[in-house]
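Newbie here. two chains, one complex. Structure please?
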Amino acid sequence: MAKARIAFFDFASCEGCQIEMTNFGDAAFLELLNHVEIVEFREALSEKTTEPIDVALIEGSFTREADRARLEEIRRRARVVIAYGQCAATGGINALKNHQTDYKEAVYGQDAGMPHLDSDKALPISVVIKVDYNAFGCPINKYEVLQLLSHLVHGKEPVIPSYPVCVDCKRRETVCRYHEEDHCLGPVARAGCGAPCPASGVPCEACRGLVDDANLASIEKVLVERAGFSASRAAAKRMLWTANQGSESK
Amino acid sequence: MTTTDAKIRVRHLTRVEGHGSIVVDVTKGKVEKCEWRVPEAPRFFEAMVRGRHYSEVARITSRICGICSIGHTLASLQATEAALDIRISPQTDLLRRLLKHAENFDSHVLHVYFLAAPDLLGVPSVLPLAATHGAVVARALRLKRLGHEWGSLIGGRTTHPTSAVPGGFTSVPAEGELLELRGKLLAAVPDLEATLATVVALAGNIPSFERPTEYIALHSDKEYGLYDGVIESVLPDGKTEQWPVSDYRKVTNEYMVPTSTAKYTRNKLASYAAGALSRFNNNFDQLHPEAKAAAKALGMKPVCVNPYLNTAAQTVEIVHSAYEGIRLIDELLSAGVRLEKLAAPERFGRGAGAVEVPRGILFHEYEYGKDGMCLSGNCIIPTNQNHANIQADFDKLVPELVAKGKTEKEMELALEMLVRSYDPCISCSTHYLDVRFKCATS
């Protein structure tokens, strides 16, 4: 069987999800190379291709019209497109600026009008091209991505979790952050990461986005009543990684 | 007189973090255009931290960079703690230093093996070497994994750490886990020796090019500057000057240029360099003896003015961080490691912090209101401090290459290698500003 040709591409992002691919160690990574051929990965390789590819893993948000043609070109020659990481899947942390109007002036001051600083709302790449699968997370869970690729290579349909992070905390017997007099977005946050944050003593901030049909009014109420947040802080908190999600921002 | 014609257009240079481009036009031996361009999509982090609680800020600004997210976290925590007068414990201080070394080790392994070495070997990437030099590729992946495990043990994760927060750590490694890490670091010594031997063997392929410049790095009386200290500049004549971190704007002096979404900086000269070579030039005497031996094997001593040798300086630092990691683990274990209560804010104001990330000195500064919410932020990233220096190197290098009669292809490779030697982190470098602090309502 021919190896699947996979390629990585990046738009507005920190490229940390791509870096995660180098953290498997020699055994797992060299084994992966027995099944896939990495034909483009600008951050780590100089090889480039204009040929068709089996799986395109695209990191980063769509933030400017100038990037539309490049996304469309990748889609045209990719059999499968994976939004690789939260910036690509939902806009991720980049979308925090979507609810501000003065971000250019705040960062670039009197130079804000310079044409090359153009940046519009940070959006998921799915607003430009069809996305077949999402690898959620900031950063991605590299073992989940390995599973995803393995399913695709073997012709199976990948399963992307849509249950909340609370389930993973119960599984690994992590004490609830609310019992530790903290706050947490676990009840509305999409699982699949293995819930490492509550396990290391910090709240889940929903970096993988929201579960389908998340009850946002309820989580904000919990933040106010259980964690003592003001209503405005509760609303801001729940948007930290999910500023593009939820009815009011669609 | 040469009659070289060259038209170099490298769009989105490979094997660097982020997007940078090289544009060079030479007509009949005359350099008509020679530019290092930064077209990275800006992301506006300083705008996004406004209105965020102090406990969230480091987790947001960590996302500036996937490679140096530990360093961004630590610089952010230092700035927040300075602003809020949070005083951390000696154990937290040691754990953070250990975490900083993990990042330095991890990122340098990535750069030396995956990003820089292919140029010295004349291949496009390390992957084709898996068939012919399997042992070297396996060693690279093994060391990268070690750096990742090291950082994950201390910080919860290497890409966007979780447990390092204002006031301390929300979880700490068990003593048995630290002992296990110590064992892994000791077991890696043969891999470190082999790494040094590989770089020494390839050093003949590192271009000889010299351009003295100003070298800026953190300097500490306690150790080779990495986690904290004062800002120090060393000029080509060996003259040094120091500034407290809170005066960082006097050193960075940012300005905009039309070819870049990142800002440029300058201090004493037209440009300055940050990174492993600057640290080496400022703090050589404080390197671990094994790291000094590595420098000797590479034929390096300060002040070293060949920017291509930044990769060699990183190799020296890989050795330094491994041995310092072992020393810090011993110090932690001798005192005993326990989960401590987080130190609390004593006030709400403005503060700055600085660490050395793998690619150079990094500044964060924030101001907080009385409710603990962030009013404004400023991050000045090392790669943006290097952009002007890269351009100045281009301006000297291209005419030299033309005079030597180099072909277009040879020039292109020399310029690509030069940029890569700085290990630029370009997605980082598009997020800083001429900040105008709003006055806190007092």
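Moderator note: Chain B has two domains: 6-37, 45-430. Chain B touches chain A through 68 residues (CB under 8 Å). Thread marked as resolved.
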